[in-house]
Write a structure and sequence with these properties.
heterodimer; A: alpha+beta; Aldehyde Oxidoreductase, domain 3; four-stranded mixed beta sheet; 4 helices; 10 strands; about 35% strand; globular; B: alpha+beta; Ubiquitin-like (UB roll); 5 strands; Beta-grasp_dom_sf (chain B); ThiS/MoaD-like (chain B); Molybdopterin converting factor subunit 1 (chain B); Mopterin_synth/thiamin_S_b (chain B); MoaE_sf (chain A)
Chain lengths: ~160, ~80
């Protein structure tokens, strides 16, 4: 039986600056000795997308809605999984290949719930949080299209 | 009663508009009604919608559907499907 609604700490940040994963996970775990598992996902900028090399990727977002959307995703995850703390950091502004874009991390007494919650958060973020990517390629700028596979990744949590 | 409309990403670029205000009434008072009204008062918006394809909307910072009610003084945003993460 999964005990949901156990969240002690929720950390959501939208920022231009890079982040240090080790420091972030320390902040996520600090003072919660019931934690036995930490699962973290980091999304990064690829140098190649759909056949074109990428010079820069610029992340636009909807200030005000973005934070509300991410906090809501954490709240829904807390209602479904046994997580003790959760964190989402998403960068905005211009980024280069190899740069970190996003961190999603969850803690739990045991690994399975931490893994599941982390994946759930990323699947919802991909389809619900108001961010848009624009890539600069040798042929000019182009907005990244949404992928159907992201919709189906989210849909599997709804069945 | 003014509705604050915000546009993002490719829709903002195509129209050259990031923010506009709608003070006239529109029927029905939903996301679909507002979208149709914007197409009438702003040909740039109508033109851009053809290229954007699937359009999404938010009312007062919550994701919305075509039949979502637009309350007085709401902030309504239109944008293409999101691509974060």
């Amino acid at each position: 039986m999964v005990k949901t609604g156990q969240l002690r700490r929720s950390l959501v940040k939208v920022q231009e600056d890079d982040f240090d994963v080790s420091q972030c996970l320390q902040e996520l775990r600090e003072g919660i000795p019931q934690i036995g598992a930490v699962a973290a996902f980091v999304g990064t900028v690829r140098d190649l997308n759909e056949g074109s090399s990428i010079h820069t990727m610029t992340l636009e977002h909807y200030p005000g809605m973005t934070e509300k959307s991410l906090e809501n995703i954490v709240a829904v995850a807390n209602g479904r999984f046994e997580i003790l703390s959760a964190m989402i950091i998403h960068r905005v502004g211009p980024l280069k290949p190899e740069d970190q874009i996003v961190l999603a991390a969850c803690t739990s007494p045991h690994r399975q719930q931490a893994f599941l919650a982390c994946e759930f958060i990323m699947d919802y973020l991909k389809t619900e949080a108001p961010f848009w990517k624009k890539e600069q390629t040798p042929d000019g700028g182009r907005w990244v299209s949404a992928r159907d596979s992201d919709d189906s990744a989210k849909a599997r949590w709804e069945s | 009663m003014t509705i604050h409309v915000r546009l993002f990403a490719s829709l903002r670029e195509r129209t050259g508009i990031d923010h506009l205000q709608v003070s006239e009434a529109f029927e029905p008072a939903t996301v679909a009604g507002l979208k149709a009204h914007l197409c009438v008062i702003n040909p740039m918006f109508a033109e851009a919608l053809k290229d954007v394809g699937r359009l999404r909307a938010a009312v007062n910072h919550d994701m919305a559907e075509d039949d979502t009610i637009v309350p007085p003084a709401a902030e309504v945003a239109f944008f293409p499907p999101v691509t974060g993460g």
